[in-house]
Specification:
Number of strands: 0
Shape: globular
Radius of gyration: 17 Å
Structural class: mainly alpha
Strand content: under 5%
Order of helices and strands: HHHHHHH
């Protein structure tokens, strides 16, 4: 039976990668989490999604988190067997714009806010968001997976500070752009 959706590989490697990031990697989970987040916010169990309020502060905090975490991530990746090498992929960066947003909806928006709403504990929200983020990045070696968990916790702290997904998304995007470009 023919698929209703076009085969992304027919687009070529770059566009196919961007299409998979946009539609496949995290979108289904993000849509379910966004729906659950919205419904739970409607009944008052969790905070509703917020628009960015202080863009300058959110950009500053995202850049600071990136400046702290990028060298640690690079060192951890080198320790686990990655090597340095320059390779920029516009298609990958474009795809990450979407998949990182979807991940922020899932891990900070839904999981983090649900933990905060369920426990009233910022620490529980930070730990759970980071732990689940690390767990789902199981394709990495344990040391790098621990770094991903710490990064997830840091991204959750940005969400708690600003109550918007913009700062965590921006930091996530910057980290991926830097680390994906310099590590092979």
């Amino acid at each position: 039976m023919a698929s209703v959706f076009p085969d992304p590989s027919a687009l070529g490697e770059g566009p196919a990668l961007a299409t998979r990031h946009l539609l496949v990697f995290s979108l289904p989970a993000a849509l379910l989490c966004a729906l659950a987040w919205g419904l739970c916010a409607r009944v008052g169990w969790v905070e509703p999604p917020q628009r960015p309020r202080a863009i300058t502060a959110e950009v500053r905090d995202a850049v600071v988190l990136t400046a702290v975490f990028a060298p640690v991530g690079a060192a951890t990746a080198l320790y686990t067997g990655f090597s340095l090498g320059w390779h920029w992929s516009t298609w990958s960066a474009l795809g990450n714009v979407f998949s990182n947003l979807w991940e922020e909806v899932v891990y900070r928006g839904w999981i983090g806010s649900a933990m905060l709403g369920a426990t009233g504990s910022r620490a529980a929200a930070v730990l759970m968001s980071g732990a689940v983020f690390a767990y789902t990045h199981s394709n990495y070696p344990p040391a790098l997976q621990a770094f991903v968990g710490a990064t997830g916790a840091g991204l959750m702290l940005l969400w708690l500070r600003h109550r918007s997904l913009f700062a965590p998304w921006l930091a996530h995007q910057l980290l991926d752009m830097i680390l994906d470009t310099v590590l092979t």
